[in-house]
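ERR on first pass: missing label on line 2. Operator R.T. fixed the label and resubmitted. Corrected input:
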Amino acid sequence: MAVNPKLRPGRDAHVDRPAPAIVLVEPQLGENIGAVARVMLNFGLTDLRLVAPRDGWPNEKAIAMASGAARVVEGAKLSRATAEALAGAQFVAAMTARPRESLTPVMTPEEAAREMHARTLRGEVCALMLGAERAGLSNEDVARADAIVSIPVNPAFASLNLAQAACVFAYEWAKAAGCAPPPSDLDTAPPATKAQFDGLIDHLFEELDRQKYFFPEEKRPIQQRKIRAALTRAGLTEGEVRTLRGVIKALTDRRPKD
Amino acid sequence: MAVNPKLRPGRDAHVDRPAPAIVLVEPQLGENIGAVARVMLNFGLTDLRLVAPRDGWPNEKAIAMASGAARVVEGAKLSRATAEALAGAQFVAAMTARPRESLTPVMTPEEAAREMHARTLRGEVCALMLGAERAGLSNEDVARADAIVSIPVNPAFASLNLAQAACVFAYEWAKAAGCAPPPSDLDTAPPATKAQFDGLIDHLFEELDRQKYFFPEEKRPIQQRKIRAALTRAGLTEGEVRTLRGVIKALTDRRPKD
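pass 2 clean. output:
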């Protein structure tokens, strides 16, 4: 049965609800701007702001890399200075790779996303700032932030691509906004009742008895317990119990096949 | 003071400890393989396995995109079939973008990373499988997995770049492995004692009194409470209290400047 994913509960909540802005300060490569736009839209963010992009604006490479998220790139707001891009924001976090000599509090991406989600629900405007590919944010820009967001990278190889850094925050935003993965078919397939499961086990043990499997006789209880525990652990559905009974029937059918 | 980040507690734990393998099944673009390798190393993963990469192997573009993580690309293990790549693994998760008609349990990236971390600590070998850029994993490959990992993407724009999907898992792995961001300077800067803080407040109120700021007299208590509460909320350090006392002193210095 085809399910319209837009109608799944909790799945239509991604876009067009208030969400934080992503502010790229002096980004260098158009490709990275496009990749940031794409991953923003993947997680329901649409408000992209650019401060003095190195190669000017608009940028064809950004649109090409956005790959379906062109509307995020085309809607990007251009500013000359960080202060201008942040002017309307009420809570700003700065993503930085390396520790700063700064007295700004440090949050994990998860904490920052939760803080921004709570503030966004109260009607506040939040923004996440990311710096240029090489240099990152200036100390001056970091000092504008209410919080520093630090991703727990490998200190021996900490240089995270700009779009990957944006991905981590955008993903945590989607989590904080309560966007859960779709339910598994396993959640809706009825688990077998114990009676149904016991029917399978009895069927199996009868056939094994016919084959003299349980031997010597005193080992029968432990052999049976092991089989029962292993199959119990699979958490079979009603349908799977029927399937496995068919399997046993097929395996034990001694009638000649042509 | 320069701190060697390798010596920060909890920060030297990323690489060369057992960690899950990342298995790319029939990846198409060398650039994506390189970007996956880079983000793996960013989060301490190094075991990359490739099943039948479309453009052959080795691939120059993969090495170029790995940008410092060339050793992950160069150490990648090549297989012809998924079963071969997974042969030594004991717990396998399959990352899929779209819901599957499958009775494999679905986990969030966080749950999968925690499950794999617990298993890795017990000495088990774990792997995460990702499919080709367009098609994703085949239903046959998904059925090999102990769990499906589903990222909570925007259903209206669910096509996550391969390296971004790997990024989400690798980031959750680093979190599950207990890699915390470095401490903030704020954690080590001693907060002012209440006596030090009161010294600042008294100094400020004295100077404000001198300027006849508290007016009319009956409003004095509420005006003072507002100022005290606002400055208290900043959670000032000892050093910042000294700085602010210097600021007040400078502002109120009436001696002629030349």
